[in-house]
Amino acid sequence: MNGEEIIDRDAGDSANKEPGTEPGVSKQTVNEVSEKECQHIGNIDASSVNVEPESKDSTTANTSLAAATTSSADNDSCEKEQTCEQTLMDTDQSNVVATPPEPIPIKIIYNKKKYEHIADLNSTILDLKQDIEKLTGVPVATQKVMFKGSTQNDQTLKQLKVSKSSNKFMVIGSTMNDLLKVAAAPDPKSVSSLADNTAAVSSKEPLCKQTAHKKVLDKHGKPEDIASGIKGSSVPLPPTPLSGMYNKYGGKTRLTFKLDQDELWIGTKERTQKIKMGSIKDVVSQPIEGHEEYHLLGLQLGPTEASKYWIYWVPAQYINAIKDTILGKWGSL
User: Fold this and answer.
1) Residue-wise over 299-323: b if at least 16 C-beta within 10 A, else e?
2) Where are the beta strands (DSSP E) in 139-240?
């Protein structure tokens, strides 16, 4: 056998040998190396990804965190809106300009006493009544404040045109002590008089149809100089005396309200009777049938029905003002 055949045989044998059949290397060793390499490669892939499965606790925690974040955002939004609204309110309030006071000296007359007082032209009659209560002790609820006639609680002094030359207020009313004294010791005659008066007024027969009054009306008729009457109206007393009326004798009668003296003057041709308003127990009136723009007016000057002073053809629009002026709102209720 020559040398070329030997070389070819060796090459063929080498090609047909399985891995691991080389001298010194077993097939088992080769398999172990392959497994280790595969395992190493798997570890490298896993470490490069490094993703761990989420547990249920982790999911719940993440959900709670998201909800808390949303709630916090909502709260922040609400707080911002409230802050904005408060800022707008503060701005509106800061834009309100307070009306500066306009002090004016006034005179308050009560029970023949004169009080000097500084009031604000922008204040109301109700504000003034509170000051009057401090000065006189007359409760607000029992006060009747007159300024060129009756006044209303919501009227301001500026609306009434109060000025330095026209600043006199007349107050009618009773102090709490006076009211308590009257309540503690009622006058039986007064009670009887009021009962008689109530019975007369509530009688089914109108006053103008009762015999005594009908005779007066039929005899003297309607006065020629009578003032205009307005049915269903109520206005303050005029600054001048009320005239154009007559009494039960047919004598011309005028009523003058002396507020600074707390007196009512009943004037006739013969004389002028000056009566303290506080002594007049009651005031009653009824329309004259067929002439409802005029009333028949009775002033309770004494304890009995006979002590009423009757006046005929009083303009209807002044009836409420007369009652309020004489009795005050407390007494005319």
Assistant:
1) bbbebeeeebbbbbbbbbbbbbbbb
2) 144-146, 168-172
Exposure string over 177-209, b if 16+ CB within 10 A, otherwise e? eeeeeeeeeeeeeeeebeebbeebeeeeeebbe
**Biggest CA pair distance of the chain:** 190
What is residue 141's three-state secondary structure? helix
User: What is the helix (H) or strand (E) element at residue 107, kind and residue range?
Assistant: strand 103-110
In one-letter notation, the amino acid at residue 147 is F
% helix, strand, coil for the chain, step of 5: 45, 25, 30
For 122, phi and psi rounded to 5 degrees?
Answer: -85, -5
Secondary structure (3-state) at 212: helix
Query: pTM here?
Result: 0.46
How many C-alpha atoms does 80 have within 13 Å on its Cβ side? 6
Cβ atoms 99, 122 nearer than 8 A:
yes
Average pLDDT over residues 249-267: 91
What single string gives the DSSP state of each residue in 266-330?
A: EE-SS-EEEEEGGG--EEEEEEETTEEEEEEEEEE-SSSGGGEEEEEEEEGGGHHHHHHHHHHHH
Cα–Cα dist 52/54, whole Å: 6
Query: What pLDDT is stored for residue 197 in this prediction?
Result: 52
Average pLDDT over residues 220-232: 92
